[in-house]
């Protein structure tokens, strides 16, 4: 079974940066697409990005485009989310998810990590 574990969340000031990690176990990362999502209190879960299986492509939501960057390290079976110029509205629980090699389709995003909290506040 594929398992995902997010880490790296914490408290940062507006304008700061933070890097989240999504560790993949039980399978080789190179065969799986990884999506990043977040959910803020009182809001629907929001898709942020998806990186399809290597070499693949990565897409970003408008809300984070130009500020967030996804990087895959297949050797370490880890996907990173580099977050820059953080804003208070970025405060949320962040999740990674997978389900297959593609970012859409019937098996997409059926496996999720536990989430990691990001708080952007002065």
Descriptive terms for the model:
122 residues, mainly beta, seven-stranded mixed β-sheet, four-stranded antiparallel β-sheet, 0% helix
Word description of this protein:
With 122 residues, the chain is an all-beta fold. 0% of the residues lie in helices and 47% in strands. The strands form two sheets. Strands 2, 4, 5, 6, 9, 10 and 11 form a seven-stranded mixed beta sheet that branches.
Topology of helices and strands:
Blueprint: E1 3-7, E2 10-12, E3 18-25, E4 34-39, E5 46-51, E6 58-60, E7 68-73, E8 78-83, E9 92-98, E10 111-112, E11 116-120
Parallel strand pairs: 2-11
Antiparallel strand pairs: 1-3, 3-8, 4-5, 4-9, 5-6, 7-8, 9-10, 9-11
Cα distance, first to last residue? 40 Å
Q: What's the SSE pattern?
A: EEEEEEEEEEE
The averaged pLDDT comes out at: 94
Task: Assign a percent range to the helix content.
Answer: under 10%
Question: How much is the radius of gyration in Å?
Answer: 13 Å
Q: If helices are DSSP runs of H or I spanning 4 or more residues, what is the number of helices?
A: 0
> By helix and strand content, what is the structural category?
mainly beta
Task: Please give the largest β-sheet.
Answer: 7 strands, mixed
Q: What percentage of amino acids are in beta strands?
A: over 45%
Anisotropy-based shape: globular
Instruction: Give the low-pLDDT segments.
Output: none
Extended strand count: 11
